[in-house]
Amino acid sequence: MSSAARVPFRAAFSTAVTDNDAPPPPPPSSQQQQQQQPPKQPSSHLDNESELEYKLRPSEVLKELDRHIVGQKDAKRAVAIAMRNRWRRRQLSLDLRKEVTPRNVLMIGPTGCGKTEVARRMAALGDAPFIKVEATKFTEVGYHGRDVDQIIRDLMDVSMVLTRKRHTEKLREDAKPLVEDRLLDLLTGPSPKSRGNDGSSSEDTASRDSFRNMLRDGSLDDQEIDVDVPEGSPIEKIHVMGDTGASSNPNLAAIGDYLNRLAGAAGGRKGPPTERKRMPISQAREVILELELERMLETIDLKKEAVTAVEESGIVFIDEIDKICSSRDFMSRSADASAEGVQRDLLPLIEGTTINTKFGNVNTDYILFVASGAFHAVKPSDMLPELQGRLPIRVELNGLTEDDLYKILTEPIANLVRQQVELIATEGVKLSFEDEAIREIARMAALLNKTIENIGARRLHTVMERIMEKISFEAAEMDEGDEIVVNKELVQDRLGDVLVASDLSRYIL
Predict the structure, then answer these.
(1) How distant is the alpha carbon of residue 501 from its chain centre?
(2) Rounded CA separation 51/86 (Å)
(3) Which stretches of the chain drop beneath a pLDDT of 70?
(4) Which segments of 70-148 does DSSP mark as H helices, in order?
(5) Interior angle at CA 461, CA 455 and CA 463, nearest 5
(6) Do 242 and 249 contact (CB within 8 A), yes or no?
(7) Largest CA distance in the chain
(8) Are the C-beta atoms of 494 and 440 separated by less than 8 Å?
(9) Who is most buried in 26, 292, 380, 489, counting CB within 10 A?
(10) φ, ψ for residue 344, nearest 5 deg
(11) DSSP letter at 138?
């Protein structure tokens, strides 16, 4: 009998595995299943991981970056590979995962070529804590200013916001029935179950159901009710006003949290003190929803999850790193507090250390660092050798040519030409650019970059604003339905004096 009982169990088990885990036919071999199955089930959050796995494929990252950034294939590929390796590391076994460290990236290129834009688009791709900082904002330890440890503290703040937002979206649907019950309690009194009376009358139930239907129909949205909402604590206001308070000092943050808890417990109740406000139901629904979500989030350890997200998936983009380098051709050392001292402070941060934050200690061993700089006055070799070794992957970004500037004006989704057309359309005026005019704009911008100063794609903003200055001023006075066509002659007329001034400026001593 035991052998007969095992046969249907095996058949049912194989059927369940085939229906749930196996890919579409033809089915893979057993060896392929052993190789493919572990990466496909990285954690309990299978749906989120599957979506993230698709979004972080190098081809998908490259395709998304191409929608907003023209050219710079090498930089895009380096960023795509670095982000994909972050996902791959999370699929490894725990003992091997500890040995795999991120390969930090150094992007080198002239100003206005897309270095910072690559970082901005990186933040929207992966569901990971991301922060962009300017290297010139930090000073050496011992000087007045922000030290580099503040980078990780700010990253933790970003991670807490992301973690709270992610759990809030998950719990929002579960909280809506609770909000409805709270509103009904305020309208009809407590429910019979909350009063402990199971044998409620049919009249109470019918009245409550009628109010529930009107609440769902929106018939009671204008009805005003009294709602208890948390009132602002004076201690919280002090920390908000002081920029260097809780955000920069974790000890002050801990003291502030403790004092806030004492203020809430002073009235003999848990949580912050509340005040009663009168508001319509349409507004009270959102207020009560936030209160219910806060109660539900109290059961989740957000701090621990946020720390883990920073340690395992955090990305830090350090811009203008060349501005804290001094040329080695000069024997004299710079006395700037934001020069080599900041480089020395960055060494342990990038290599791996423990930073004390108000949410707990954060280990930086596995945080990905991406640095960028124009390196006009200095060379990458002018950085400290130890810092160069901690940025092993170097990517050269090319300067923008006339063809690149033309593509920037036409290919990205939110290009400058479309922005101007949509802005003027709000006045009821139709604006259009001829193709020859767009090519002339790109040619003029490239010429100005060569003759005055090469500021890359930012030159297009200067040229476009010069062309649109008169049109933008007069568009509000035009009749609705009027059309304006920007042609090549108009572009040359508006930019002629700029080119003459640039030619004369070269002869002024």
Answers:
(1) 42
(2) 15
(3) 1-55, 142, 144, 191-201, 203-204, 232-272, 328-339, 499-509
(4) 73-90, 94-97, 115-125
(5) 90
(6) no
(7) 105
(8) no
(9) 292
(10) -65, -35
(11) B
Name beta bridge partners: 485. Answer: 432
Residue 473 to residue 469: CA distance in whole angstroms = 6
User: Tokens in use for 386?
Assistant: 């130890």
Of 114, 121, 111, 110, nearest to 75 (Cα)? 114
Q: How far apart are CA 77 and CA 83, in angstroms?
A: 10
Q: E strands along 164-253, which residues?
A: 224-230
Question: Can you give the pLDDT at residue 334?
Answer: 52
Residues 6+ apart with CB under 8 A from 22: 28, 33
Question: What one-letter code names the amino acid at 202?
Answer: S
Burial 283-311 (b: 16+ CB within 10 A, else e): ebbeebbebbbeebeeeeebbebbbebbb
Give me Rg for the CA atoms of the chain: 30
Closest CA relative to residue 162, chosen from 305, 365, 311, 46: 305
Q: How far apart are CA 285 and CA 280, in angstroms?
A: 9
Query: For residue 254, which phi and psi values (nearest 5 degrees)?
Result: -65, -40
User: Per-residue pLDDT tens for 165-207?
Assistant: 989 998 888 888 888 888 888 888 776 655 555 555 676 677 7
Residues 89 and 93: their CA atoms lie apart, in Å, by: 9
N-term to C-term CA, the chain: 105
Give phi and psi for 194, each to the nearest 5. -70, -25
Distance CA 450, CA 108 (A): 20
Amino acid at 272: P
What is the C-alpha separation between 317 and 135, in angstroms, rounded?
10
Residue 412 per-residue DSSP state: S
Q: Which amino acid is at 86?
A: R
Residues 505 and 509: their CA atoms lie apart, in Å, by 9
- Measured from the Cβ of residue 263, the count of other Cβ atoms closer than 10 Å reads 15
Helix pair angle (435-451, 458-474), 10° resolution = 130
Kindly report the length of the chain: 509
Burial of 145 (C-beta count, 10 Å sphere; 0-12/13-18/19+): middle
- CB of 204 closer than 8 Å to CB of 246: no
Helix 402-410 vs helix 435-451: angle between axes, to the nearest 10 degrees?
130
Q: Residues 358, 305: contact at Cβ < 8 Å?
A: no
Q: Are 433 and 446 in contact (CB under 8 A)?
A: no
| Residue 284 contacts residue 227 (beta carbons within 8 Å) | yes
CA separation for the pair 332, 325 (Å, rounded): 13
Distance between CA 162 and CA 313 in Å, rounded?
12
